[in-house]
Amino acid sequence: MTNDSPTPPPAEPNGQPPYGGTPAGYPAQQPYPPAPPAYAGAQAGYPGQQHGAYGGYGAPATDPGKNLGIAGLIVSIAGLLVWVIAPIVGIILSIVGLVKSKSAGFRNLPAVWGIIVGAVLLVLTIVAVALIIWFTVSVASDITTQIMEQCASSDDGYIELYGEEVSCAELGY
Question: Which residues make Cβ contacts (< 8 Å) with residue 58, sequence separation at least 6?
């Protein structure tokens, strides 16, 4: 008698076949179903999120323009002490920081405040410089007018200026 079918290997003591197949009396195992598709937002990425090597979320991303925004605000405030240059530098730093933050999807409040403070201080500086120039010209004009009036009323062509006697011809009057 020849038996064409091979004899199965002997069963393990726990009743399981030695090669990991399905034990007798149990239905055949089905493979696991495929994994569901990943959430669309996890692949697209949102501002402030970084994905780890295995698709998980890592530490939140940092705002690339925040430090420039803070520096711009500080330099803009320094415009109270250093006229003209500090507000302009503060505005430029704040604008660069704001642009970097917006391109990365962040709000950069220090940069916005740096632009506002810098612009206000720049306008106040321009007004102050204009007032200083106006005052200087006004005072110089008044002094010149007084000297001209004194020279016109002088009999000998000399006037007293700051405690010294000066010739009107030397002054050009």
Answer: 50, 51, 52
